[in-house]
Amino acid sequence: MAKPSNIIELECSACGKKHDPSREQHLCTCGKPLLARYDLRRAAATLTFESLKTRPRTLWRYAEVLPNDPPVSLGEGMTALVHTERLGASMGLKRLYVKDEGLNPTGSFKARGITVAVTRAKQLGAKALAAPTAGNAGGALAAYAAAAGLPAVIVMPADTPYANIMECQAFGAKVVKLNGLISDCGKYVAEHKDGEGWYDVSTLKEPYRVEGKKTMGYELWEQFERKLPDVILYPTGGGVGLIGMCKAFDEMQKMGWIGSERPRMVAVQAEGCAPIVKAWEAHQDSAQFFPNAATIASGLRVPGPLGDHLILSMLRQTNGTAITVTDDEMLQAGRELASLEGIFAAPEGAATVIAARKLAASAWIKPQDTVVLFNTGTGYKYAEAWQRALQFAQTE
């Protein structure tokens, strides 16, 4: 048993059952994800806008609402919030911003969740870490496991972008490639973890990746000088970032930072893998497994997200929506973002550009709205996809 964290309890996101945070915990007995709970009145006494001004510029600056273990950190968080004026003008939006998560260690937002998950796993006595991945999470886990001095096993589809495979191997992780989707990789980890003694770091199958991802919401509040934007567009595969930010907003309200207002959250998915959009349009509380999932945006190729009920609930609670874009639209939007603003985005991030354009054209996004697009990774790790885009551009 590890020493108690400043987390007072872990609570099931579905049935509300409480679990002991000082022990290794994964899913609730009902099979749903657990969420960390804090003494937020106590946290608010020292976590203030003024106190943040003197803290290190990593996500660990929000220490009162994170596990208080010695951090396994590579300097993640506090990524740039870029006012994209030319891109915004092309949509009739004066206050359009891109939160560029590609500037994190290992080139994606996955560093946020993994730094907290690995930190807590090490404190809980994990001997080896394992996770399925569509690409970027594997690279992050391999890096942070190396920093923690722990072995890692990364299970990924055989057609994962080569940069992701290469970085995992460089960090010393064992890489298992399977013919299939991330769901098949998840089954592999589930079937082998007990026999091999792996600590499962799969999306939402442990409580702490959400804690790292929620810091994106805290950073927006800080970067907008104690305010939140009107609309957030988020590329949604497993949806942990969207879930985490909504959790952060609830914590902020309980600490007295904000009122009941919330940004309208938009889940952006690929047309070739859109379980959340399909469920949203059918007014369902949960998503069905999306058959024959296919998209160049590997991070969006999640046919059966475990947090589906949380994502759909949060979209409703924030008066948000869900929208699909095609692969070709992503690639075109990515070229536009790069050429107008100098941001070379992953296809997942580029998806939010075309989604914003569609929602602005339909007047769902208003010209006066403050809008944030999340670029969840660097385009440099998607050489195969961007090669296709540039070849297409040359033939136009």
Structure report:
The chain has 396 residues and is an alpha/beta fold. The protein has a domain at 81-107 and 209-395: Rossmann fold. 40% of the residues lie in helices and 15% in strands. The protein is built from 15 helices and 13 strands. The chain has helices at residues 40-46, 49-52, 85-91, 110-123, 136-148, 162-170, 182-196, 209-213, 215-223, 240-254, 275-281, 308-317, 327-341, 347-361, 383-395; strands spanning 9-12, 18-19, 34-37, 81-83, 95-100, 129-132, 152-157, 174-178, 199-200, 231-235, 264-270, 321-325, 370-375. The strands form three sheets. A six-stranded mixed sheet has the order 4-5-13-10-11-12, sandwiched between helices. It has a four-stranded parallel sheet with strand order 8-7-6-9. It has a three-stranded antiparallel sheet with strand order 2-1-3, with no helix packed on it. Strand 1 (9-12) and strand 2 (18-19) form a beta hairpin. The longest helix has 15 residues, at 182-196. It is globular and about 55 Å long. The N and C termini lie far apart (61 Å). The relative contact order is 0.14. The mean pLDDT is 96.
- How does the major sheet shape up? 6 strands, mixed
Straight-line distance between termini:
61 Å
Order of strands across the biggest sheet? 4-5-13-10-11-12
Oligomer kind: single chain
Specify the CATH architecture of the domain at 81-107 and 209-395.
3-Layer(aba) Sandwich
What overall geometry do the principal axes of the alpha carbons give?
globular
What's the CATH topology name of the domain at 81-107 and 209-395? Rossmann fold
